[in-house]
Amino acid sequence: MPKLRQEEDDMRPETAVVHVHSQYVHTEFYSCPTARKTIILVNGSLATTASFAQTVKYLQKQFNVVLYDQPYSGQSKPYNHHAQPISKEDEAQILLGLIEHFQVNYLMSFSWGGVASLLALAQQPERIEKAVISSFSPLLNEAMLDYLGKGVRYLQSIDRENVGRLVNDTIGKHLPSLFKRYNYRHISSLAEHEYRQMHAHIHKVVNLDSHCQLECLSNIEIPLLFINGDRDEYTTPEDARLFARHVNDCQFATIENAGHFLDMEHKHAWLQMQHTLLGFLQASPSRQHRLPFTDLQPAMAM
After folding, report:
1. Are 250 and 224 in contact (CB under 8 A)?
2. Does residue 190 carry a pLDDT above 60?
3. Do 89 and 200 meet the contact criterion of CB atoms below 8 Å apart?
4. Residue 293: what pLDDT?
5. 107 contacts 99 by C-beta, under 8 angstroms
6. 1: exposed, middle or buried (C-beta count within 10 Å: 0-12, 13-18, 19+)?
7. CATH tag, 13-138+212-301
8. Would you say 174 and 59 are in contact if contact means Cβ atoms under 8 Å apart?
9. Which element (helix H / strand E) includes 152?
């Protein structure tokens, strides 16, 4: 029992509220005594730091890990006014501030967190050496447009139950039942300003098709790895490969038998994500240079 308690204590983060870009942001810092590098994780829309619980388990063994809640969500909410939604450009500036504050070397985003992450990376933050963009693509395909169209209607009317069901029936369809129940409870009980925030973002995306500002991506000079699940029909591996037309140094990895939520869906996907991420982040620059525009399969990444 003492040993188990010690392991649990080691997993507890240091928490702090950081003032950045005129907002207050709840942060969690998982320290690794032997780590020489720090990675920051950028969650998707309507999500909190809890969404990275599975990812932290393997990253913390190698890196210091930084998580944070957007100003409008999670444990950041009590510290901010929510008079109007914040833009993805604002989220990018917040991310850049946190990168400096925690002296971050690597970045990993999930789903819609890829928008702010790519906008931030296009500004060439000096500290960032590599970045991973997961479950994201530059294309709004038919399945994603259908999902977003329904989402706009439910969010506008603050239809909590249908928003929760929509996520579980679409991008969350491959999650285990326990995670689906947690997802539904979380999404259907958000504050009204959180629904307004997401509605504003989706409305802009659907009407302007501007969820990913491709013209700025050529400014990104660091190596990028795009990871998608082979069962994800909303951000497919094939669609993600279109980033190769706009990004100078990129690689692609496909997680087998996984949907949108990747390492949350089952143990084999979790192991593939672990091997792929660590293989990319820990590769030497010379090895990294020899692998542009190729697939990183789990066997290679080990």
Report:
1. yes
2. yes
3. no
4. 36
5. yes
6. exposed
7. 3.40.50.1820
8. no
9. helix 142-156
